[in-house]
Amino acid sequence: LPADAVGAAQVQRWLSISAGELRFGPATARVIKLMGRPGDIEAAQAITRTLLGVMEQRLTAADWLAADRITLADIACYPYLACAPEGGVDLSPYPAVRAWLARVEAQPGVKPMPSAVAACPWTRTPGMSGSGRPRCAWGSSRSPRAPVSAPSCLTSTACSSPSFRSWWRPP
C-alpha cells in the first residue's frame, strides 16, 4: 500500500469497486453467460461498460489505478476485467484499459488470466445450450444453489487441463 493517506485511500477506493461494481458487473455477466446462471445479463453488462468508462478515464491519465506503481488495487481489479469479454463485453472501445491489462500481465510473477472456455475441458458440451453459446457442463448441470465443488477430473492428478488446474482452488 502507498505510505501516504491519499494513496492508501485510492487503493481502498478501488478495492471497494472490486467488491461492488466488478462483482455485479463483469463477474456477474461472465457467470450468467458461461454457466447459464439466472440473472440480468444486460444490467451486468451495463454496469461493466460504466465501470470501463471510469477506468478508461483514469488510465488515460495514469498507468495504474491508485498510484504511480502497481498496487493491490490493480491486482484486485485485474481478473474480472481481463475476462470481461467472456461476459459479452467488448474491450475494444477502451484502449487505456487494454494497455493497463497488458501492463499488469507484464509484471514479474503475474500469470495472465486463462480463458475459461479455452482452459476448461468440459466448458463446450454439445447440446447443453440451445443458443450454441458456451456453457459450463459442471455449472449448468447443477442447481443454482448447489455448493461449488470441482468435478473429479480437477481434483485428481489426471486432470487434462493444466492451465485450469493452475488457478482452480477448491473451496
What order do the helices and strands come in, and which of them pair?
Layout: H1 5-19, H2 21-35, H3 41-61, H4 72-82, H5 95-105, H6 116-119, H7 137-140, H8 152-155, H9 162-167
Question: Describe it for me?
Answer:
This protein is mostly helical and 171 residues long. Helices cover 53% and strands 0% of the residues. It has helices at residues 5-19, 21-35, 41-61, 72-82, 95-105, 116-119, 137-140, 152-155, 162-167. Helix 1 (5-19) packs parallel to helix 2 (21-35). The longest helix is centred in the N-terminal third of the chain and has 21 residues, at 41-61. The relative contact order is 0.13.
Determine the structural class based on helices, strands and strand pairing.
mainly alpha
How many DSSP H or I helices? 9
Distance between the termini: 28 Å
% residues in beta strands: under 5%
Average pLDDT metric: 75
- Give the helices and strands as they follow along the chain: HHHHHHHHH
Work out the helicity level. 40-55%
**What's the β-strand tally?**
0
Shape: globular
> What are the segments in which pLDDT stays under 50 over at least 5 consecutive residues?
119-171
Radius of gyration: 17 Å
The major sheet is characterized as: none
